[in-house]
Write a structure and sequence with these properties.
Layout: H1 7-27, E1 39-42, E2 48-50, H2 51-66, E3 71-75, E4 79-83, E5 91-99, H3 101-106, E6 112-119, E7 122-129, E8 134-139, E9 144-146, E10 150-151, E11 164-168, H4 175-181, E12 186-188, H5 193-201, E13 207-215, H6 217-229, E14 233-235, E15 252-257, H7 262-268
Parallel strand pairs: 3-5, 11-12, 11-13
Antiparallel strand pairs: 1-2, 3-4, 5-6, 6-7, 7-8, 8-9, 9-10, 13-15, 14-15
Helix pairs in contact: 1-2, 5-6
Length: about 270
């Protein structure tokens, strides 16, 4: 229980913790095995669903069904699914059941489950580092937290020359990131976008830059609220605030940072408002 969250937020934190435990139990013995990477179907997002993805998603959905609540779920693998009674859902839920599939299949201990819940003016984000069994969470207007570190705050770094960032791009557009690489201290590519955004919220990274044009609602929803509640900033490559409109298929670039040199990062990648 977190004293900083509302009663509603605490109830959802318990639910998300239970869902994360179910995912960890479902995938722990599968990680690092070739069989976990077997393609079982094409996902709703148009990419192959691996055996380990399906196991993670089923674990979350079963936890939601057991809760007695109603959900309209938007998930990377199955798309849209209703859980609970036929009445209006208690929550809209955006789910990435396994962010970092390649890492999990390869036995690299950096992968997560990402859950975002909303209803009217209530918004709650949750990311769990499944290898370390550490949860990050935020309720709109009440701050961001982790189970191990308590209240989260972005870094206070304002000098780009000491920035540590996580960054992604694709050929033939790798030059877009080279300007950043020439300025910042170090760049990492860790393989789990939501978890990398949580690291920015925790002050362990100074920024997260994804220029692949592939980020979808399920990829960014939880990380966005956690990073913003920790004092950071999240925009597209032109500096426009990201709107989570429920269109799962809309893809975009994303820049999340501690906010102190956000405009300069946008200029370095050739973005920013004209």
């Amino acid at each position: 229980m977190s004293e900083q969250l509302s009663p509603q937020g605490n109830d959802l934190l318990k639910l998300c913790d239970a869902a994360a435990k179910a995912v960890a139990d479902a995938v722990d013995e599968m990680t690092g095995t070739p069989a976990s990477g077997q393609v079982v179907r094409m996902g709703a997002d148009g990419t192959p669903t691996k055996k380990i993805d399906s196991a993670a998603e089923n674990a979350v959905l079963e936890t939601l069904r057991a809760s007695g609540l109603g959900f309209l779920v938007l998930s990377e693998e199955v798309g849209e699914v209703s859980i609970g009674s036929n009445r209006s859902p208690d929550y809209f839920l955006h789910l990435d059941p396994l962010d970092g599939t390649f890492n999990a299949i390869s036995g690299i201990p950096f992968y997560s489950v990402s859950i975002y819940l909303s209803k009217d003016d209530f918004h709650f984000g949750y990311i769990c580092d499944l290898a370390q069994k550490t949860g990050f969470y935020a309720e709109a207007g009440r701050g961001a937290y982790s189970h191990t570190a308590g209240r989260l705050h972005v870094s206070s770094s304002s000098d780009l020359s000491i920035f540590s960032i996580s960054a992604y791009t694709l050929r033939p557009h790798t030059a877009r990131i080279s300007g950043v690489g020439d300025v910042v201290r170090r760049i990492r590519t860790l393989g789990s976008s939501s978890l990398e955004m949580a690291l920015v919220a925790s002050g362990k990274l100074d920024a997260f830059v994804d220029l692949r044009g592939m980020m979808r609602v399920v990829d960014i929803a939880a990380g966005k609220i956690i990073l913003e509640e920790a004092g950071g900033m999240v925009t597209d490559e032109r500096g426009n605030r990201l709107v989570l409109d429920g269109n799962m298929w809309q893809k975009r670039d994303l820049i999340g940072s501690n906010g102190l040199r956000h405009t300069d990062l946008l200029k370095l990648i050739g973005g920013g408002r004209n």
